[in-house]
Design goal:
Elements (H helix, E strand, L loop, with lengths): L2 H15 L13 E2 L12 E2 L4 E2 L1 H13 L1 H7 L4 H7 L12 H10 L2 H24 L5 H14 L1 H10 L6 H8 L11 H14 L18 H15 L11 H19 L11 H9 L9 H12 L14 H13 L10 H8 L2
Antiparallel strand pairs: 1-2, 2-3
Length: 353
């Protein structure tokens, strides 16, 4: 996801959860007692993103880890002890209690707000990757699915997709969710309308919100521009950063594969931008997997961006969880074995040869 996409989906989630469905509005200090929202909610819910039960525990532990001294100074009622010893799936305290007041101070502190933002960003990226694995390919539609997922769980996403006319566009998803009878998504018409209209305004038709993800003229221009800039920066490709993945960009990408194989592994390839048997053999001999950290990983990441797959760490040459999920998504889209490792077949598809 790009920084803009993260900001938009974060503000959407905050708006529909605690911001009165006003984009950009949120309540970082929210504290909701057990059973307030429904008879199924057996624990407290806290924060702008409405983290419930064990998720509330995760958020508080994250804040404690980020600034233990601040946490200790604000925890005058034994919240830390409860984090370590209580069952948070049924953690129930009154809003007027001393512990609840401590929790509000902790989550509404500067570090508490920062941790809330980080947590919702991580959750949204996970949910968007899940949508991609279900063959939702355009960003605005993936973000709509992330909204469904946050509200009703993974089952809500698959339920709505089963009702959705293909292709999985934002418009088709919105039409399907209006017919839903589930007790989460279908029951909240005004929420879905707000999310739909906000995505239309800030994502659809811009920076990859709509369009195809085939890796050529229909690919989201902003991600292609990232790929082109990285090719220019790391390999002096001299590309025009125009968001069009045409012959010049494809040739530059193959040249980058060859340069990185030479630099990292001493492959001895001619850097000519032509995919030949030597390049293919070198790709087969050097398979990337999670934990790798080198320039060849950067080339892999550039290829994923060129095919409209965003990564949390951008092009950082570090094969972490986000890159692995990106590889899996790309492999699933292209009929490859989805093992999260990048060898000859994956690079060949990335190079479009």
């Amino acid at each position: 996801m790009t920084a803009k996409e993260k900001e938009v989906i974060r503000k959407i989630i905050y708006a529909v959860e605690t911001g009165g469905q006003v984009y950009g509005q949120m309540d970082y200090a929210d504290f909701t007692e057990a059973y307030t929202n429904s008879s199924n909610e057996t624990a407290i819910t806290i924060g702008a993103g409405q983290w419930y039960g064990t998720e509330a525990q995760t958020l508080l532990n994250r804040i404690r880890k980020a600034d233990s001294a601040l946490f200790a100074s604000l925890d005058t009622a034994g919240v830390a002890s409860d984090l370590d010893n209580k069952d948070w799936s049924v953690y129930r305290i009154l809003k007027t209690s001393a512990k609840a007041k401590c929790i509000v101070k902790i989550i509404n502190s500067t570090v508490g707000r920062k941790c809330q933002d980080q947590l919702v960003d991580e959750q949204m990226e996970k949910y968007i990757n899940e949508a991609a694995a279900l063959n939702v390919t355009v960003m605005d539609a993936k973000m709509m699915c992330a909204n469904f997922r946050h509200q009703g769980g993974y089952g809500a996403v698959t339920r709505i997709l089963a009702k959705t006319q293909k292709p999985y566009t934002l418009d088709n998803l919105y039409a399907a969710c209006q017919t839903d009878t589930g007790n989460q998504v279908g029951a909240y018409r005004s929420r879905q309308k707000m999310v739909y209209e906000t995505l239309k305004k800030y994502i659809s038709g811009t920076s990859g919100g709509g369009g195809n993800t085939g890796g050529n003229t229909g690919t989201a221009s902003s991600n292609i521009q990232i790929a082109q800039r990285e090719l220019n920066s790391k390999f002096n490709a001299g590309l025009t950063v125009d968001g069009s993945w045409g012959p010049a960009s494809k040739k530059a990408y193959i040249s980058a594969i060859q340069s990185a194989l030479n630099s990292v592994y001493g492959a001895g390839l001619s850097v000519d931008g032509i995919w030949g048997s030597n390049t293919e053999s070198a790709c087969a001999s050097h398979v990337l997997s999670q934990g790798a950290n080198n320039l060849y990983v950067g080339v892999l990441q550039i290829g994923l961006y060129a095919h409209d797959i965003s990564l949390s760490g951008a092009v950082d040459c570090d094969f972490g969880p986000s890159t692995k999920q990106g590889v899996i998504t790309f492999q699933q889209r292209n009929g490859l074995s989805a093992d999260g490792m990048a060898g000859r077949d994956t690079f060949k598809k990335l190079a479009e040869v």
